[in-house]
Amino acid sequence: MSIYSVYICMTTTDFIAKVIVMKPEQKGSLHPITQIVRAIYPVFQELGFAIADGPELEDEFHNFDALNVPKDHPARDMQDTFWIKSNADPRSEIQNPKQIQNLNSNSDNADIKKSERMVLRTHTSSVQIRYMENNKPPIRIVVPGKVYRNEATDATHEAQFYQLEALYVDKNVTLAHLKGVLGALFQGVFGDDVNIRFRPSFFPFVEPGVEVDMQWKGRWLEMGGAGLVHPNVFRSVGIDPNEYQGFAFGFGLDRIAMLKFGIDDVRHLYTGDLRLVNQFRQGDTSSEK
Question: Domain map of the chain by residue range?
Answer without folding.
Answer: 32-287
